[in-house]
Specification:
With about 130 residues, this protein is mostly helical. It contains five helices and no strands.
Length: about 130
């Protein structure tokens, strides 16, 4: 749940920073791309065959950039990067005190996303 929600917020923050001012976007696709990033991290961690996951990600990014006038590439990239970070925090947390490390990492990503959002709001404010 944290991966999904924070990936969506990371996508929104990325849209705020890398799109034109006051651009409107709609949807949860950034959060979905975050799940893709998290799944990729898990597949790598367990030594799984990542070809299927990478193909799925590549096809989705291809559609994103083919229809760049209709799809928020910023949201997709931001969500994916957020998912990679959160997936790494969750999967690579040390075995000793794993829950504590995961909580600290998730909160750390949340703080970075919040600071990035507030910083952009400060820049956009009249």
């Amino acid at each position: 749940l944290a991966l999904y929600l924070l990936s969506g917020l990371a996508a929104s923050a990325t849209v705020m920073w890398f799109s034109t001012s006051y651009t409107l976007t709609l949807g949860a696709s950034g959060a979905i791309f975050g799940l893709m990033g998290g799944l990729l991290v898990i597949a790598v961690k367990v030594g799984g065959d990542v070809r299927g996951v990478l193909t799925w990600i590549a096809v989705n990014f291809a559609f994103t950039f083919l229809f760049v006038r209709l799809i928020s590439w910023q949201g997709h990239v931001g969500g994916f990067v957020g998912g990679l970070l959160l997936g790494a925090v969750i999967v690579y947390a040390p075995r000793a005190s794993r829950a504590r490390w995961q909580l600290a990492g998730i909160l750390g990503v949340a703080v970075v996303v919040a600071v990035a959002t507030l910083a952009r709001i400060a820049v956009l404010a009249p």
